[in-house]
TrEMBL record:
CDD domains: Maf. This is 7-methyl-GTP pyrophosphatase. The record marks F13, Q77, E162 as: Important for substrate specificity. It is found in: Cytoplasm. Its main location: cytoplasm. Its EC number is 3.6.1.-. Its cofactor is a divalent metal cation. PANTHER family: BIFUNCTIONAL DTTP/UTP PYROPHOSPHATASE/METHYLTRANSFERASE PROTEIN-RELATED, BIFUNCTIONAL DTTP_UTP PYROPHOSPHATASE_METHYLTRANSFERASE PROTEIN-RELATED. It comes from Aquamicrobium zhengzhouense. HAMAP family: Maf. The active site is at D76. Nucleoside triphosphate pyrophosphatase that hydrolyzes 7-methyl-GTP (m(7)GTP). May have a dual role in cell division arrest and in preventing the incorporation of modified nucleotides into cellular nucleic acids. Pfam families: Maf.
Length: 199
């Protein structure tokens, strides 16, 4: 049963979450241009949560074309500061500016998951976490980024909460799985409902 599940993501964090939960699955990285998808829906009045869901669906549909009959899990996460959606920093200077921007403020992580089979969307969910960064000294930001290195560029917020990035925060509202990028409990519940995993 569960060997018919495909994770439409190149993320090692999402792969580890599903593997740690005991799922058997394949992994296939989607081949979509996320910025092009965003541009196509620009001006449509979408929320950052809507955008995460649209991107997750686009990834799942792309991968589903290569895996007929299989249940494909598409995921995406947006970071919103008020209504602005931020993207992964391109370099360490942009990572530094990102942490300065988030310093002392509350931002939102919107983690979307979509299930698709043969081009049909079966289910969608967006988990939300709110994270408040403490006021960060610019010197500390420089030292922090020097310590974590290029890992800062793999996350939209320029931090990894599961590592040293936890030191940047004073308050977190939301579950760990949503923060890392996959609302795991609702997903597992739906997979059980669909008979895709034992339960």
């Amino acid at each position: 049963m569960s060997d018919a599940i495909v994770l439409a993501s190149g993320s090692p964090f999402r792969r580890k979450m599903l593997a740690d939960a005991g799922l058997s699955f394949e992994q296939d990285k989607p081949e979509i241009d996320e910025r092009a998808v965003e541009k196509a829906v620009e001006g449509a009045g979408l929320t950052p949560e809507d955008l995460a869901s649209i991107l997750a669906e686009a990834k799942a549909l792309d991968v589903a074309q290569r895996h007929p009959g299989k249940l494909v899990i598409g995921t995406d996460q947006t970071l919103s500061l008020e209504e602005d959606v931020l993207h992964k920093p391109k370099d360490m200077e942009e990572a530094r500016r990102r942490l300065l921007l988030l310093s002392g403020k509350t931002h939102q992580l919107n983690s979307a998951v979509v299930l698709v089979r043969d081009g049909e969307v079966l289910w969608r969910h967006v988990g939300i976490a709110r994270l408040t960064m403490r006021h960060l000294d610019p010197g500390f930001i420089g030292r922090h980024l020097s310590g974590v290195g290029d890992k800062a560029l793999s996350s939209v917020g320029a931090y990894q909460i599961e590592g040293e990035g936890i030191q940047l925060f004073e308050r977190i509202e939301g579950d760990h799985f949503t923060i890392v990028g996959l609302p795991l409990l609702p997903l597992l519940s739906k997979l059980r409902d669909l008979g895709a995993i034992d339960g």
